[in-house]
UniProtKB/TrEMBL annotation:
Its EC number is 3.1.3.48. GO terms for molecular function: protein tyrosine phosphatase activity. The keyword Hydrolase applies. Residues 49-58 have a biased composition (Basic and acidic residues). This is protein-tyrosine-phosphatase. Residues 7-159 form the Phosphotyrosine protein phosphatase I domain. Gene3D superfamilies: 3.40.50.2300. Pfam families: LMWPc (PF01451). It is an enzyme of class 3 (hydrolase). Keywords: Hydrolase, Protein phosphatase. The keyword Oxidoreductase does not apply. Belongs to the low molecular weight phosphotyrosine protein phosphatase family.
Amino acid sequence: MKACTPSSVLLVCLGNICRSPTAEEVFRQQAAIAGLSIKIDSAGTSDSHVGDKPDPRSQRHAKSHGYTINKLVARQVTANDFRDFDLILAMDSQNLADLQAIKDGIIDTEDDLAKLALFSEEDPTYCGSDVPDPYKGDNDDFEEVIERIESSAQAWIESWKAC
Ligand code: 4NP
């Protein structure tokens, strides 16, 4: 049986300037269309872009698909995110491993830390695969990011609507 709609979802990549801010806005729009009330945020495992706006290439490609992400600001994931969010979705398997290490390091007697999963987990098209890091890539790589994010976000929403 599918898990029911989480009340909060955190999208995580490495820098929080390309994939996860894009996923944050795609998820927000898709959840609103589906009538699901979910708190949505994004963060990076690295601190290298904390305080930065999304990469201009991500802003441009997102905008061309109807997603405005220019007001988002990068932040690093924290241990508290595991208490504040029901579900944390990793853009790639390295992000997932890094998140698991943070979760494993949390000394907490409570048993309600965020569930972790790969962003593509529910997606029949891309299941188990990474949303590739586009940072050193070209326009096609940024387009692929949008396509994969739309597909995998929709798959999560569909799984929750069916619950
Ligand atoms: P993101 O992309 O993880 O999708 O935000 C990256 C952004 C910055 C870097 C790598 C990936 N970087 O090496 O600075």
